[in-house]
Amino acid sequence: MNEDIKEVLYSKEDISRISHKIGLQLTADYKDKNPLVICVLKGAFLFMADIVREIQTYVEIDFMDVSSYGDETVSSGEVKIIKDLDVPAEGRDIIIIEDIIDTGKTLQCLVELFKHRKANSVKICTLLTKPERRVAGIEPDYVGFEVPNEFVVGYGLDYKGRYRNLPYVGILKPEIYENN
Ligand code: XMP
Ligand code: MG
């Protein structure tokens, strides 16, 4: 599957270093707050595992599965909840862990949802951001890396369910999705 990757952008080591740095910030920012850390499935599963192991204070963990993309590489702007939280968001300090912010529409919907549910605070932590593509007026509070306006996969991110297990983030060769 490596032959489907045009260029490796961030290695396992790069991601490990940035997770450590973000973990230090979160530890300081959330001391004594018992935050609810929410992994947005499926793309954020590896980054989530890295981040929570770098947080040196009490946290609770939950998972949400939302869909905005299906198998396409262009955002539909609609977010459907496939799996909701197991615990109430009311009164909680929420940290949303995402794989990538592209247009920002997915996160905008999630932030609005948690505010509607009366969360005490909502912050966003994302492994990747594609600032060029932003449409929604939403920016992450904790960011790993910026990526160019190309389709990236690996380290949790997929194309048609594949490549999530790559131990790095790389640019998918356009012919892979153009020919499908
Ligand atoms: P929006 O546009 O709502 O999209 O910010 C966020 C979701 O879109 C997916 N996405 C990608 N997935 N490579 C991927 O594997 C990409 O380059 C990419 N861009 C957006 C992703 O699921 C994210 O949660
Ligand atoms: Mg995806």
TrEMBL record:
It comes from the Bacteria. GO terms for biological process: GMP salvage; guanine salvage; hypoxanthine metabolic process; IMP salvage; purine ribonucleoside salvage. Signal peptide: none annotated. The keyword Transferase applies. Pathway: Purine metabolism; IMP biosynthesis via salvage pathway; IMP from hypoxanthine: step 1/1; Purine metabolism; GMP biosynthesis via salvage pathway; GMP from guanine: step 1/1. Its cofactor is Mg(2+). One of its GO terms (molecular function) is guanine phosphoribosyltransferase activity. CDD domains: PRTases_typeI. Residues 18-160 form the Phosphoribosyltransferase domain. It is found in: Cytoplasm. Keywords: Cytoplasm, Glycosyltransferase, Magnesium, Metal-binding, Nucleotide-binding, Purine salvage, Transferase. Purine salvage pathway enzyme that catalyzes the transfer of the ribosyl-5-phosphate group from 5-phospho-alpha-D-ribose 1-diphosphate (PRPP) to the N9 position of the 6-oxopurines hypoxanthine and guanine to form the corresponding ribonucleotides IMP (inosine 5'-monophosphate) and GMP (guanosine 5'-monophosphate), with the release of PPi. PANTHER family: HYPOXANTHINE PHOSPHORIBOSYLTRANSFERASE, HYPOXANTHINE-GUANINE PHOSPHORIBOSYLTRANSFERASE. NCBIfam families: HGPRTase. This is Hypoxanthine phosphoribosyltransferase. It comes from Liquorilactobacillus satsumensis DSM 16230 = JCM 12392.
